[in-house]
Amino acid sequence: MIEHQINLLPPPVREERTARVYLNRVGRLLRVAAGMLLLLLLAQAAGGGAYLYAQRSLRADDAGGMEIASETRQLIASKNGTLGLADRWLQYYQPWTPLFRGMLAAVPSNIALTSIQLDEKTGALNIQGSVSTRVDVVNFRRQLEELEWVESVDAPLSNFETGDEASFSFAVKRQ
Question: Domain ranges in the chain?
C-alpha cells in the first residue's frame, strides 16, 4: 500500500525543500568520504611509523645502539637550544602596544605627532611631532612622565629653543 502525503507548500518552496534534502544527503556522503580518507591516511602513517621504528631498531642492534644514541643526543641538544632561545626572548620582550592607549590619551589636541618609533637597542620609544607653542611641549612631557609605566622622558634642549620651527622629540623609557 502506498502512503499518500498531502503537501500544502507552494511549488517553489517544495522544490527548494527537495533541493535542501539532496544537498544534505550529498553533504553526509562527503563527510563519510572525508572520514574514510582520514582513516586511510592515519593507517598509512601508523604503518610508516612502525616501519621506521623497525628499521631504527635493526640499525641500533647492528651498530650497538651508539649511532641512535648519538643522533638522539644531538636532537635533544638542538631542541633545548631552541627552547632556551624562546625562553630568553619571552623574558626580555616587553610589549609596547598595550601602553599606546594611555600615551595617546595624554597627547594634547594642539600637538600633532609625526613619528613614533621603537629603538630596539636602547629600548626607548622615540616620539616626534609638531606643536604651536613650547609651553605645550613642556605640558606634554609632564603628562608623559605621569604615566605609571614611564621611567623617564629624555628631551633634547632643541625642544625648548625659541624660534619659528615648532617641532619636538622625546625618548620615552619604560620601567
Answer: 11-92, 97-174
